[in-house]
Amino acid sequence: MKYLITGGSGLVGSEITKLLLENNDVVNWLTSSKKEIKNVNSFNWNIYKNQLDENCFQDVDVIIHLAGSGIADKRWTVERKKELIESRIKSTQLLFDSLKLMQNKPKTIICASAIGIYKNQNDQLLNEESEIGNDFLADLTNKWEIVTNQFELIGIRVVKIRIGIVLSKNGGYLKSVAAPAKYGFAAALGNGKMITSWIHISDLANLFLFASKNKKMQGVYNAVAPNPVTNFEMTKQIAKALNRPFFLPNIPVFILKFVFGEMSSVILMSQNVSSKKTEETGFKFEYLKVIDALKNIYK
What we know:
By secondary structure, the protein is of the alpha/beta class.
């Protein structure tokens, strides 16, 4: 199969690209960089100038759309919020506008989304039909999904993958949490009772590939492992996997709010997200327990 990936150089995109190349699939990237990637066909776009090299679509079967500025990379200033919104909405709209008049379109688009769309419900089980939140992250994610729905109007199958906390040695959640843990400074956040719905990077990449080939999949699916854990348990297991002590008191909420501002809502949210619908497609998670995922990452 032939794939077009946006955001291919990111944490998730890199893992998906690696898997596709191992499967001898053809990979195109849409990128704003001129950097050449081995065995990947790179095409340029500029979402702010509404420019895109339409050769990127030639003979493509599936688009995997991951492009978007990192949610937790910087403090949420007014400017940063605008960037987070535009990087997702403008990129998706540019893809749609470029494809709508084409005769030979890709059959499928699989778009990244996030479990941050759900309302913070503490330990209540959340599924794909659960109530949408009313904070910035939920609003951003909802807008992104709405723009993505347009592709259905031009006959393209749409799958939206709502991603949980991604566990990877190459970045993401563990980059910030595991760094102090390596030096014996692991500490839970807030009251430590917030539920963390997580997924191993390998399972996440495989889910995107599975969705690309399973034509029955359409609409929204949660990308979370079947066994979420509390923040306290996650931190404890990270320390255990690193063979480091875990004895420090929790970091108080007021410190987190002072350091991260509004973005602290992401750190402190509690979301017990269900993987049932995803599992019912026939997808099998390799990493069901967080300690097994962490042992694999830190082996």
